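dumping this here before i forget
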Amino acid sequence: MGSAAIAGQLGAGLAIVMMQKNKQKRANMIPALIPALFGISEPVMYGLTFPRIKPFFMGCLGGAIGGGFAAIVGLCAKGTGASMIPGMLLYLQGGMIEYIIVLLLSVGVAFAGTWMIMKKNPEAV
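structure:
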């Protein structure tokens, strides 16, 4: 479930952006989040989470938990290639609610984990 992995990185990146105190840096970080909504995780991953290592792992954890939930409920798409918001089209004939829960779970776990870890060391943001 690639969407869960991308959503996890999005959640971790969102936490980093929200914790950033410098307005100029925060304004430069926000554009990295937008492509993740459409299934492109590289800007948020290489620009925000991976350079700080711990948020990257929290994004991976969020994706793993979301993907695990998808496996538990037996979520499967009717096709391949699309993920995140465009990926919702693959679940029009069933599974849309589960798909949305997977995304929210992935984003939420990664966001909360990143927030807790980065709160201990705010200079790393």
